Amino acid sequence: MAKIHRKYKYLGQNWPGSETILELVKRACGLFIWIHTVYLFLKQRDAGARLKTVLSLQTFENAESELDKLYTKALLDHPDISDSVFYDRFQQIVGGMVVLFDPLSSASLDSLLHLSFHSDDIVLSLQSFLHNTDGDIVRFIHPSFPEFLSDKARCQNDRLRIDRNFQHGALAKACLAKMHETLQKNICDLDSSKLHSDIGDLEEQIVRNISEELQYACQYWAHHLSSMSELDADVLELVKRFFNDNLLHGLEILNLLQKMTLTLLSLDLVLAKLENQLIFVVVHIYDSALPFAPKNTPLYKTYLSKWENHIKVLSSTLLQWSALITVCEGHSGSVYYVAFSPDGSKFVSGSGDTTLCLWEAKSGAAIGKPMKGHSDVIYCVAFSPDGSKIVSGSSDNTCSEGPMQCMAVRFLFFFLT
């Protein structure tokens, strides 16, 4: 309050008074974010009148209800609240932010959403709820605000409430459109004869040639797509166009960003088949990897005719993909037991080399280093029901249990009789 008092000196020396401060503390119900939101609300303009507005709000014993009432009043006090344009822009900017999987800068958000105005106009007018961090990244001050906006029971203003399903659809379309207009072969113009490790300024080239919004689009378009309750004709057409024109371009971006194992729901099969060929030299996606794809696959038939300077394969008997998705290598002895995690995202293997290895199910990539603890062959392994721990049994007459997340070497030993 002292900072506000210094800004608005006309309020009087004793403003707001000890009784008012005690009343505000009582209304906060122990929520620091309530006090912080009031502070930002008063600081923005007309602190005296706004404080009276806050104190006039109906009181609740429930902390969440107090916060909801404050959020609603602060939003309805916006100077442009009677302007329909404000609601449209609020839905585009704030609605988009609610469902983003990674926060973006205001400039990248403008570009991704193809806005005809600057998002800063909205961000600056909503400083009670939003703020710009280093690098101009726009974030919510507290996660309770987007939770409030997207909950029909809490946010009862239809024009301010955020429909997550609609916003995911809007972001999916925006990402697909951004990729279509921006993606191209060898986007960083890299020398095809060099490995990534031989390109000294690779990071600088990525920053220079692949915008923040394009990086976001390539990583998260499928996440937004999978969050939609139904896929409309427009988004289906955009997806079809992506697979026909830009599938390999998108994989090139993910490879440059070292995100090839990122879960892109509609690309799981392609990632599993091509990952080993795409890791080291990006432009060889087109020149080397594609010609060796099985001839009867849609990938080969769709793309090979579009690239002229590719390797000519004179003889190949591979017509379809093998049923074998990947080979996981990490043990030095025979593998005696494999178990999947409850959610199917990981599996653990026990070996005659006395170690356990944890793997990503989709990519086959090893997670951490082999776990040691036994002195003899491991014959059985299992996950706990919640997937948080792994237990193993060995011919060294012990069972070992350890936390799955940290891959710790700390085990609890229980002797078998």
From TrEMBL:
It holds the Pfam family WD40. WD repeats lie at residues 328-369, 371-398. Keywords: Repeat, WD repeat. GO terms for cellular component: transferase complex. SMART domains: WD40 (SM00320). It comes from the Eukaryota. PROSITE patterns: WD_REPEATS_2, WD_REPEATS_REGION. InterPro entries: WD40/YVTN_repeat-like_dom_sf, WD40_repeat_dom_sf, WD40_rpt. Signal peptide: none annotated. The keyword Repeat applies. PANTHER family: WD REPEAT DOMAIN 5B, WD40 REPEAT PROTEIN. This is Uncharacterized protein. It comes from Rickenella mellea.
